[in-house]
Every structure is written in C-alpha cells, then in structure tokens.
Fold this protein.
Amino acid sequence: MAQDLADQESSKDRLSGSLDAVLHLLDRQVVDADDLMVCKVDDLELTVFDDGVLAITGLLAGSAAAVPRYGDQGFGGLLHDYWRRLGRTEADRDDPYRIDLELVDHLDSAVKLKVGREGALVRQGQRARRLNRLLQMPVQGLDGVRLGRPLDVRLERETSDPGERIRVIGLVVGHGRPGSYFGYDRRPDMGPWLVRSVLRWLHRHSTYAELADLDELDWDAGVIRVDPARLQPLKAVDA
Amino acid sequence: MKKVFAVALGILTAIGGFVDIGDLVTNAQVGARFGLSLGWVVIVGVVGICVFAEMSGRVAAVSQRATFDIVRERLGPRMGMANLLASMAVTLLTFVAEIGGVALALQLVSSVNYLLIVPFVAFTVWLILWRAKFSVMENVLGLFGLGLVVFAVALWQLGPDWGDLTHRMMVVDKPGDEQWRTWAYYAVALFGAAMTPYEVFFFSSGGVEERWTTKDLGTMRLNVLVGFPLGGMLSLSIAGCAAVVFGPIDASVDTLGQVGLPVAVALGKVGLAVALIGFVSATMGAACECGLSVGYSIAQYNGWQWGKYVRTDVAARFHVVLLLATLAGAAVLLTKVDPILVTEFSVVFSAVALPLTYFPILVVANDPDYMGKHVNGRLANSLGSVYLILIGVAALAAIPLMIVTRMGA
C-alpha cells in the first residue's frame, strides 16, 4: 500500500507549509510506521517559547484530552468534572497521552509517525497550554465587545532560524464552532456550489487576525483582545 | 482475464449484497398495498446509494480513510459522537433485524421456532466475523444471495400486465383506499431501506480492507453503478410479485413466509427453495456487514486499529466490539420482539440518521487535500447536492410521518 500511495499527489506533507490546526490536524487519525492505527489527535500541545513564539509541540490523545472538548466551557467543564469523579484515585487521570511532534513523519489524510505504535503513547506529565483552551476563549474588542471566537488557528512551519517549529501565525475569528468553515475559507473554489454558498453566507462576518496584531492573549483570564480595525478579510490560502 | 473475473465477481456480490431484510420486507409490504406506485422511490433510492457509495468508495481508495474517520475529522467530537450514537442505534437495529431474518428464513425451512435458531445464527455470524477471510465472506454470501433472482423469474412467470405495472411507476398516484400521508410514510421507508447507512460504512471500510488504491477506482465504480441498480431491480421484482399476488385480494404482508409466497405460486417448490437460499444468504451477508459496520464505526471514531486485514490480536478492541454487538443483537431478539417490526423501525430511522454521515463525505470528496485530482466532478456534485436536499427532507419528515400514520397502519 505504501508504494502505491507514493504516486498519489494527495500524499504531500501538509506540515511543510501553511495549515489550519482544527481543519488539518485536530481529530485526524494517527498512523504508525507500519501503517497500524495509534489514536486520534484529540488535542494539540501549545508552547510559548522564550522568544515569544507560540508553536505546536505535540499531539495529545486519550480521554483526558478528549473529554473537555465535548462542550464549551460550561457543559464541557461539567462533563469533565463528572469524568474525573469516576477516577479520583488515579493521579494521572487528568494527564493526557502525548506524542512529540519530533516523532511525526508527515501529515496527509492521516498523521504518520516515524516509530511503531507499541508504547507510542506516554503521559504528558506536565501542565501545558492546549489548543482547545485557546479555541474556547472569547475574542473581544478593546472596549470589551465580543467579536466572536477563534474558529481555527493558522499555523506555518518556520523556514529561518531557529527553524522547524510549527508556529501560530493568526486566528480565524467568527461566530459558530471551530472547524465549521470546513475549509471553504482556504479554498473558495471548492464545490459543491450549494454547500459553499450556504457556508460562506453563514460565515460572511468571519475575519482573520494576525497573531502579531492581537493586543492581548491572556491564558490566565482566558480572553483574547484585538483592535477591530486590525482584523483582515479571510484570504484564500490554498486556492 | 483475472481483471474481468474480479469485476464480474464484484458486480455479482453487489447485486446479492444490495438486498437485505429491510428491502425484502419493505418492498413486499409496499408492493402488496401500493402496487408499483411507489416503484419510483426505489429508483430514487438506488441512484442515491450509488452517489453516496461512489463518493465514499472514492474517498477510501484515494485517501485510505473510511467513512467514520471522515465524520469525526470534519464534524469534531461533539457532532461526531451524536452521529455515532444515532448511526450505531440504527445499525444495531438493522443487525437485530438481519439476524432475526436469517432465523425466520431457517424457521420456514425447518419448522423449528426461530427463537431456538437465533443463538446459532448469532454464533455463526460471530465466527465468520472473527475467522473468515474478508473476501470469502463477501463473495460466498453475495453469490448465494443471487438466489433472489427467482423473484424476477417469478414475476415474469406470473405474467402481469407489464404496461400497467410500468405506467403506475411513472405517475404520482396511489390506490384509492390509501391516504397520502401513508403513501408518504412508505416512500420514506423505502428510501431508508435503499439508503441504509451501514451499506456505506461497510463499503468504504471494505475498500480499505481490500487495500484499494486509485487504480481500483474503475472497478469500484462498475461494482456500484452496475451492481446496485441490478440489486434495485431485484427489489422492484419483489414489490412486483407482491403486487400481483396480494394486491387483488387486499392482503398485507406481515411475515417472511408471505414475502416468499409469490415465488411458490409462480414456480412451485423448487422456486421457493431457491428463494429461501437467497433469503438466508442475503440476510446472513447483511448481518455480517452490519456487525462489522458497528465495529468499524466505533473503532474509526476512537482511532483504534480495526479491520480483518490485520491479525485479530492486533485489532483486539475492534473484535471485542464485534463480540459485544453480536451478543447484544441476539439478546434483543430473545426478548421475543418481532423481527419484522424491528425491520420497519430500522428502515425509517435509517432515513433520520443519514444526513450527518452524508454531509461530511460530500465535503471531503470535494477537498483536494484528501482527493488530489480525484475530487467530485460536475455530475457527482450536481447529484450530490440534489441528494443532500432529498436526504435532509426525508430525515426531517420521517419521525412526524411515523407518528401521524402510526407506522403506516
């Protein structure tokens, strides 16, 4: 199967260029070096580096990562509490499994690892930022008026020093749920016409905010602030 | 030559595999009450399942991702889970109906009460799921399922007024003693029987099992575009037979024996024997497909290893799900619930659960990230959009119609 795959153009590596965290990474199948299935990408680990860069550093999996995603903060939090209640004795109940991004070979219709699946999942062991947390934060104007929420997080692989990090470069901001644009923002020419028209109409107010243009990304308070004047129209990245 | 054989085999199994307990029962019931005046729904349903299966088969061949992989990836965990619960409820219901169907067909042969046969059928299904090779399972049961072709022969022997039969299919009309809402309810039920979700779960996962690549797209299309319509012809012959034999005497079809009666009338014992072989194989094949679909979907949602292309111990969770599903199916039947009634429920709820699975497949079949140059063409997208609306309407209408007609009473 692997050799047949090689001649298919769809198998180019998404991680080498521009990609969207929710659209291209979240909920993808993870497959090991022998084409056996490992897990789903239930969440992503985000790290703030010393030079201020926010980048993806690992894939998170397992119930500890998946359960909080079943709802917004209210219902998701409640569900999370109930789920924890079922295993209070377990010290690592809240600790998701983690696969370091170093172990990822490439990303096409699945996330392909460089290693075999046995023992591939190890506990994260530390508290780190999660993509889901970022996706739950309200996006506000400078006066506190709600502008929406992040619908997706745009990523790009660094090409210059220190290189190779997959950094966050901006947010798709709008109303609705993360991933609900289904990729029609990146490819405005994607069919069918009916679905495209309805989705683009539903998301007619969605905009794009460069990470550098954000006034505040407050992980503790859980809020993103941006000057509405700096919001940009969505660009067709993949067209 | 080998290629031709593979294509022929694929088409034959698609014909035998298309008809299951839902098609058998619903078509016979509708034929007896409405003649062929709802025959157009079968045609609409067959075109729909062709569009849906071709898209999901193409996605599986090009990207190696089966249906529920795509559902979770595009809809996320929340909508994905809602879809999983709905689809699994319907598929388990269908699974129960198929196991019950096999047992009822064997009861017709042996006169042993079907409740005694159910545990043996369930055990056999589980044994096939656990041990049999994927291709053997599909081909053997599919080929014997072709026994249902006797319904077409029987219809020809019964010698109906062909002009009248086909004319009824072309015009929107109903028998005078039926209400329009009952007519609409059965239209939705027939649509659901033709477009059962498990068929697509099984078809796309089977493509991954058989390691299809872009080279197999032609074969896959032939299987779908020739096999399914021919299977639809079988459905229509079943309805036609019931219309000719039961229509004039105003009888309704409530048992599997009555479904086969027209064959006995037209062709005698031998015909009935062949029909029974067809019943057993077609429902047995469908039972295996349903059971596997439950395992496929749950494993694909959670990211577990699945499939019969790996050793059973490599896909341990998948095989645990198969075992539990089979036990649950048998347990439901042993409550003495009427398998025919379960069938009626399953086809209607099929129509309800369909849109959540259809929509993400339609989107991904258009996404060059997954599909490269094999994205939907103009025809696939036009039909795909029309069916998106049709499936949505059927899903919204199904439960209200079920309530106001008291299940077509």
Notes: The CA atoms of residues 13 and 142 of chain B lie 4 Å apart. Chain B has a mean pLDDT of 90.
